[in-house]
């Protein structure tokens, strides 16, 4: 065996003699080239050591052993180029970013530490990347590949290969043979290629890309996905059975949670786990079944069924049908004429652009129409309905529902049906003028009769089943009818007028006029300046059930009258008292009914100070209140065992 030894400098060793050779490059960036063909050397094999430095070693014998060795100081690897040539070679890159070329023959390549490139060429090779982010490319033949630690890329050609990514987020592309592929730990990207392959994701959230052939795919631990996006026609997938049809080629799926469909018509069916389906283009049918599923229809006329669980359904572009099934679901129709059904559960439903139809079903739902002429049915429960832009039809159905009204978003129709139903314009900058009706529907005019300004509710129609309205930020004029209504002011200077039954009028911010009209009304001041009267002529409040005054510093010249009778809770004046007191400077009561003054939401240490009109004996209930001053009424006050903080009975 001929031996060649370089120096610690830059060496160029060229071997032209036949036989076996032993070469040492030692230190420096060396070039070792065996220039004798395999025919001349026979079976003799060369052993070539690059030594420290960035070396280039090219062998020409049949069975060679090549070592790149370490670079610089032996701690960090040199960046070596090692070419085995023909024959059955063993090549060690050691540390550093090495290029290892096996050449012809059955080679064994070890990349070692560093980000290496390993190329097997022809032959049945064993390629081991070692530590680092390696790129490993096989040639023809049957190969065994291990990526080692790091994020590796493994690309196989023909043959029956065993490909193992090991730890790291690896990308593996199998060849045309019947391959065994393991991703190892990490989020791996695995392409089966041609042939009937066995693909294992192992631990991590893995992505499997369908190739040609009937593959056995096992996702292993983690949330794993199979994509058929590149298929030439539609597929059918049932995760409950693991079976597939169509362009899938007869794949078998195990421990797979998510599927991406093709650009054609797909049918994707889930199991009891939390599945994610993407239909892609085409008229797809997606059925999540049990579990908290995420379904995306994509482009096309799609049908999405959530099944059991709290699901998220998104139709995408096209005229889609979405059915949430049981659970608290989120449904988004997207672009197109969509039909959305919440079913059981507290659902959030959005139609998106297009003329959509939606039904909340059972429980307390939130329904939003978006742009278009939408038809929205709340269903059972306490629902919130928002038509969005366009002339929409909103029907609360059973339950106490809230309709969202806005200015300049179309002429909507509000239908309450069963329950107490209210239209809320609090998001509108302008004032609201609405006069409800006891039969049929009424349309809000374009102009506010209170001050001639544009009406935030202009064009909106109110069925007789609407019982309440909340005004906007401007000046509101809300007028009742023969039934019982609830009106709430927004900002501005507002006027609330009850009808001929028991109404509730609530003044909040601004300067408000609350007129009860006929019936036993409840008038509540919760802020601002509130003027309360029994009818439109300014008469004292008569036959009204409750008057609630909150946030006041005093009450002046209040007159209350009853028309007879002796109901237990008739004609009550509530004084809302917190830790501060409210001062009643003057109050007169007439009639035969009982009267109550009490603190509303007051604390035990709160108290109400009442001015004296004339001499009358006052008996107070001090069960919970600390103190209560005297009030002179036409009749003697008596004690009552009711458990109120501040209380007088006259």
UniProtKB/TrEMBL annotation:
Protein's UniProt name: Calcium-binding protein
Signal peptide span: none
Keywords from the named record: Secreted
Organism of derivation: Rhodovulum sulfidophilum
InterPro entries hit by this protein: Hemolysin-typ_Ca-bd_CS, Hemolysn_Ca-bd, RTX_toxin/Mannuronan_C5-epim, Serralysin-like_metalloprot_C
The keyword Oxidoreductase appears for this protein: no
Molecular functions (GO terms): calcium ion binding
Ranges annotated as biased composition (Low complexity): 135-146
Compositionally biased region (Acidic residues): 311-322
Gene3D superfamilies named in the record: Serralysin-like metalloprotease, C-terminal
Location (main, coarse): secreted
One Pfam family this sequence matches: HemolysinCabind
Organism superkingdom: Bacteria
Subcellular location: Secreted
Region of interest (Disordered), residue spans: 115-150, 307-328
């Amino acid at each position: 065996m001929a031996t060649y030894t370089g120096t610690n400098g830059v060496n160029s060793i060229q071997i032209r003699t036949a036989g076996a050779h032993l070469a040492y490059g030692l230190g420096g960036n060396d070039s070792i080239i065996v220039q004798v063909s395999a025919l001349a050397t026979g079976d003799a094999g060369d052993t070539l050591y690059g030594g420290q430095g960035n070396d280039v070693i090219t062998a020409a014998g049949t069975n060679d052993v090549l070592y790149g060795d370490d670079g610089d100081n032996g701690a960090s690897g040199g960046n070596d180029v090692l070419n085995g040539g023909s024959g059955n070679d063993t090549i060690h890159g050691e540390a550093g970013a090495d290029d290892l070329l096996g050449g012809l023959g059955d080679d064994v390549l070890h990349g070692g530490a560093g980000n290496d490139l390993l190329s097997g060429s022809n032959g049945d090779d064993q390629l081991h990347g070692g530590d680092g982010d390696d790129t490993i490319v096989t040639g023809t033949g049957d190969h065994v590949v291990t990526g080692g630690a790091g994020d590796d890329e493994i690309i196989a050609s023909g043959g029956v290969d065993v490909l193992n990514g090991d730890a790291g987020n690896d990308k593996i592309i199998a060849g045309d043979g019947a391959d065994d592929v393991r991703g190892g730990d990490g989020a791996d990207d695995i392409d089966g290629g041609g042939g009937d392959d066995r693909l294992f994701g192992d631990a991590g959230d893995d992505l499997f890309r369908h190739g040609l052939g009937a593959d056995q795919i096992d996702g292993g631990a983690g949330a794993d996905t199979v994509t058929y996006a590149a298929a030439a026609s539609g597929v059918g997938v049932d995760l409950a059975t693991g079976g597939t049809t169509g362009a899938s080629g007869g794949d078998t799926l195990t421990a797979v949670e998510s599927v991406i469909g093709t650009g054609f018509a797909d049918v994707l069916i889930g199991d009891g786990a939390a599945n994610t389906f993407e239909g892609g283009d085409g008229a797809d049918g997606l059925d999540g079944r049990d579990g908290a599923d995420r379904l995306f229809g994509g482009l096309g006329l799609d049908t999405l069924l959530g099944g059991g669980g709290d699901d998220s359904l998104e139709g995408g572009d096209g005229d889609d049908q979405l059915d949430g099934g049981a659970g608290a679901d989120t449904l988004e129709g997207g672009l197109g004429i969509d039909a959305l059904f919440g079913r059981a559960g507290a659902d959030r439903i959005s139609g998106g652009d297009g003329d959509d139809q939606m039904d909340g079903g059972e429980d307390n739902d939130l329904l939003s129409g978006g742009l278009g002429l939408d038809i929205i049915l709340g269903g059972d429960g306490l629902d919130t309905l928002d038509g969005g832009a366009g002339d929409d039809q909103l029907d609360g159905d059973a339950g106490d529902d809230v309709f969202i009204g806005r200015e300049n978003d179309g002429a909507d129709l509000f239908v309450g049906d069963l329950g107490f139903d209210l239209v809320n314009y609090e998001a509108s900058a302008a004032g609201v003028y609405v006069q409800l009706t006891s039969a049929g529907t009424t349309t809000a005019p374009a102009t506010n009769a209170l001050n001639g300004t544009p009406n935030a509710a202009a064009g909106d129609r109110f069925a007789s089943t609407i019982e309440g309205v909340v005004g906007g930020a401007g000046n509101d004029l809300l007028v009742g009818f023969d039934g019982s209504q609830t009106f709430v002011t927004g900002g501005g200077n507002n006027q609330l007028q009850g009808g001929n039954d028991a109404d509730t009028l609530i003044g909040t911010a601004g300067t408000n006029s609350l007129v009860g009209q006929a019936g036993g009304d409840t008038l509540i001041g919760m802020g601002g300046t509130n003027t309360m009267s029994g009818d439109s002529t300014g008469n004292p409040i008569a036959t009204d059930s409750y008057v609630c005054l909150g946030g006041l510093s005093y009450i002046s010249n209040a007159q209350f009258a009853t028309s007879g009778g002796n109901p237990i809770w008739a004609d009550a004046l509530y004084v809302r008292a917190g830790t501060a007191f409210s001062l009643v400077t003057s109050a007169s009561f007439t009639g035969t009914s009982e009267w109550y003054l009490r603190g509303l939401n007051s604390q035990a240490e709160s108290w109400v100070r009442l001015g004296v009109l004339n001499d009358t004996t006052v008996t107070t209930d001090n069960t919970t209140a600390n103190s209560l001053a005297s009030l002179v009424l036409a009749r003697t006050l008596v004690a009552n065992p009711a458990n109120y903080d501040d209380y007088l009975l006259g």
